[in-house]
# Entry
Amino acid sequence: MRRAQPRPRRRAAPAAPWLCVLSLALALASAPLASADSRSLERRASTVPGVVDAGDYLCRVEGDCQPCSPGDADSPVCKVYGNRRPLLCIPKVASNHPPSDSSRADTASSPPAPPHLYPVDADFGAARADEDNLLADDFVPGERPVDDDEALDGVDAAPDEPLSPAEAELREALEHDRRRQKRGLDAAAWDAALLRRRWDEAVAAAVERRQGGIVQRIQTYEACPKVLRQEYHDYFEFIMCNLAFAAVAGSILVYRQRTLALRQFGRLAARIMQTEMT
# Structure
């Protein structure tokens, strides 16, 4: 008997070259996108909500987008979209040396000269550190801070004479009920408002210390593409015009159908009369 010869094994087909080229192209295309996303995330994480990082300044939106007045139509901001939005900006950097008494007297009568700028990271990091220290010492997220009235209530609540257990229990229940009613507002909104206020105060205080007591607050504008009120008005007007056109077209269609039906009925009646007469 002949022995069965083993079948030769098939070699795996090599991967197509175009697959390698495609994977390499995808890897090269995703690299700049990933780096851009990481930079954008770092930029967003370095600021708080509502604050825009504009180079050497921190700017906060102070109003809605409004159309430019005719007198300001030639300004660089209004030439972009024809609309502008107010901003309040403070510098992130300050002068290296605080002004002396004579320079402060001069600045009181004349506008201050632009300060000498140095790298931003140290000042901005110090402002963030001051803000973090304020939050760590005075604020606990999720809890409403105790105001002065509540603190004084605890001091005034100490009676001159010892209370009986029933009176002490009643007083404790009343105090608990009153504090619970005072804390009825939304904790999340309170925390967000307090965080934003503490942040603004910390940044302003850090800049004021580094500028020798002079805080440069700049009122400026930025270009904005759309005025929300005008957009809402135009959209409502567009919807109403479409409804009016639809109503007019529907009424014309109904009138036309009725007119054609009457004509057909008239012709049919005339034919019937002619056949009867003949």
